[in-house]
């Protein structure tokens, strides 16, 4: 079973399911832009191709032809009375019932990407689209042996690294409160907080003779969404874990660095990338593509919105793009455009296949809904929803060679190198 992990607040995104090249665990923030995230493949992923709309609250009148009318209001009141009078397991609050009604309306759409957010949940989503959050900069997961939260990694330069928190440290207490019996989300919410405040952690570390007591000052943390390095033969490797607001600058810096290192060919790794900000992927595409269409969307009325590239900074070296079944939404926009223009070779397995767009519509009480409003299409007019993008070179990931070997080998990356080397001749 996939281990559910969190980067203090929401989700650890070891989204490279089937490979372990770059732990990212992105916590992101909210912007008035389209977001593209897909993939229902890890326990707690946020799926989005979303835009923010002005508050949609308005005067409401009961139309007898609508789902919400005098009769349904009467039935809801009857249901509320029945539940409060008879439900045995726990006390039920009005807030619980209200949120449940709103969620139920969205669930009736039978669309996993359309959902209701409470004000608190919307605030969490807000953090998730910027790649910036406030906390200690540690990836946290549940330890299967103790059922307690543990550190699964720390972000370089973050507060957790400054106080020498390490992978596999068990978090026994947070501010003197035991984490036993707490869910991962509950433990994470105890750890996070405003920048400048502190949190006291009681740590159990293998090999240590006693509990370790660590005080960590929370800070603004930028999630690392891009990794890069130079490989042999002047081949450059750039991995994008997710398309967040911070990804634009991180990718720009990475591309400039490898270009300055005499790059002769580029491997762009989008494996396990569930998507993110449409603005981010469009900005990144503009650094790679020739002049023309990047992606366009169409809504139920046939209204079309186009995102284009001026072609002023096209990539001028051979390109290979690594993709897999967890490359979704924004990843598919970039991979699809590269494939349509024929400027790169896709290596790996068929992508996830999320080709629809959601929009966030907030209300004055701080809550919001996210609802599917359109579909998106690649430059050649392909809608890949439900089908995904087939790679030009099929290559299944060899998990045994990577995970069960003294010298792990990423066979997909090796195949990408082989293909790129041929293109560079």
UniProtKB/TrEMBL annotation:
It comes from the Bacteria. Keywords: Hydrolase, Membrane, Protease, Serine protease, Transmembrane, Transmembrane helix. The chain crosses the membrane at residues 21-44. GO terms for molecular function: endopeptidase activity; serine-type peptidase activity. One of its GO terms (cellular component) is outer membrane-bounded periplasmic space. It holds the Pfam family Peptidase_S41. The keyword ATP-binding does not apply. One of its GO terms (biological process) is proteolysis. Residues 122-192 form the PDZ domain. Belongs to the peptidase S41A family. PANTHER family: CARBOXY-TERMINAL PROCESSING PROTEASE CTPA, TAIL-SPECIFIC PROTEASE. This is S41 family peptidase.
């Amino acid at each position: 079973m996939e281990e559910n992990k969190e980067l203090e607040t929401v989700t650890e995104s070891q989204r490279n399911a089937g490979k372990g090249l770059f732990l990212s665990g992105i916590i992101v923030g909210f912007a008035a832009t389209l977001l593209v995230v897909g993939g229902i493949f890890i326990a707690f992923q946020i799926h989005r191709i979303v835009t923010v709309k002005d508050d949609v609250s308005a005067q409401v009148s009961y139309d007898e032809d609508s789902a919400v009318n005098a009769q349904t209001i009467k039935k809801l009141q009857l249901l509320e009375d029945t539940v409060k009078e008879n439900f045995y397991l726990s006390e039920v609050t009005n807030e619980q019932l209200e949120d449940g009604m709103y969620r139920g309306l969205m669930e009736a759409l039978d669309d996993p990407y359309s959902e209701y957010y409470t004000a608190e949940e919307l605030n969490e989503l807000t953090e998730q689209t910027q790649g910036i959050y406030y906390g200690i900069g540690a990836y946290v997961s549940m330890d299967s042996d103790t059922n307690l939260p543990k550190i699964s990694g720390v972000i370089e330069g973050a507060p957790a690294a400054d106080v020498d928190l390490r992978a596999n440290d068990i978090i026994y207490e947070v501010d003197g409160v035991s984490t036993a019996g707490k869910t991962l989300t509950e433990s994470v919410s105890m750890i996070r907080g405003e920048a400048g405040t502190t949190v006291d952690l009681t740590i159990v570390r293998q090999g240590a003779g006693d509990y370790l007591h660590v005080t960590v000052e929370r800070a603004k943390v930028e999630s690392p969404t891009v990794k890069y390095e130079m490989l042999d033969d002047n081949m450059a490797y750039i991995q994008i874990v997710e398309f967040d607001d911070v990804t634009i600058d991180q990718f720009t810096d990475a591309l400039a660095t490898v270009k300055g290192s005499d790059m002769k060919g580029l491997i762009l790794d989008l494996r396990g990338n569930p998507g993110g900000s449409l603005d981010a992927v469009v900005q990144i595409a503009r650094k790679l593509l020739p002049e023309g269409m990047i992606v366009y969307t169409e809504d139920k009325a046939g209204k079309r919105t186009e995102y284009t590239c001026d072609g002023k900074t096209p990539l001028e070296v051979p390109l290979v793009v690594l993709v897999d079944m967890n490359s979704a939404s924004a990843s598919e926009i970039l991979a699809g455009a590269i494939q349509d223009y024929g400027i790169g070779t896709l290596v790996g397995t068929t992508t996830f296949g999320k080709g629809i767009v959601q929009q966030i519509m907030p209300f004055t009480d701080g809550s919001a809904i996210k609802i599917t409003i359109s579909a998106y299409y690649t430059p050649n007019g392909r809608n890949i929803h439900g089908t995904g993008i087939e790679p030009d070179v099929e290559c299944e990931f060899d998990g045994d060679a990577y995970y069960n070997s003294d010298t792990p080998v990423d066979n997909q990356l090796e195949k990408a190198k082989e293909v790129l080397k041929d293109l560079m001749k």
